[in-house]
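Researcher: Let's do a round of design. I'm pasting the structure tokens now; please hold your answer until I've finished.
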């Protein structure tokens, strides 16, 4: 698990990744590598995958390699994370209206 933390540290996003996963699931990023199917784990894993994809412009295969997961699983997790993000995003009202 330390290797995953080191990879996030080398990318310069460890603190952001920790804030994201602690907020969404109460776990540290390295704990998401455990084969845990609990909803809060899988949601936090997907949120972190989406974060890394958006931050670095990674494709699904690159994210899959980073997490050591199958690409189809990563694609589904990112799609769900993006849907949750849109559903919870507060969009400010348009000006003048």
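Researcher: That's everything. Go ahead.
Model: Designed sequence:
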């Amino acid at each position: 698990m330390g290797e995953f933390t080191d990879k996030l540290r080398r990318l310069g996003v460890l603190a952001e990744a920790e804030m994201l996963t602690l907020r969404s699931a109460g776990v540290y990023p390295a704990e998401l590598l455990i084969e845990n199917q609990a909803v809060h784990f899988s949601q936090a894993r997907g949120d972190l995958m989406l974060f890394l994809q958006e931050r670095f412009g990674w494709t699904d295969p690159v994210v899959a390699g980073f997490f050591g997961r199958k690409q189809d699983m990563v694609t589904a997790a990112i799609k769900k994370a993006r849907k949750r993000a849109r559903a919870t995003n507060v969009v400010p009202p348009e000006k003048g209206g």
